[in-house]
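Interim report to the steering committee. The following record documents the input for Carbonic anhydrase (71 residues).
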Amino acid sequence: MAQLEHLRTLPVVAAGMARGDLSIHGWVYDIAHAEIETFDAERGCFVKLDPSAGKVPDATPHVRFATMAAA
């Protein structure tokens, strides 16, 4: 989580997120069980990645970040 928070403070990342050109995803790999968990910022927790869902949750939603960038 600290790495995700730090990453979004970098100017190039912050600008890309504010424009809507960039999304951040936080994944944890469990190689032994062949599973991936992804951080879902809207839920505030890691969830199992479901490839059939079609969309991967953003670690930092654009709406939240755009509000912070505008301030």
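The chain has a mean pLDDT of 80. The committee is asked to note this result when reviewing the revised timeline.
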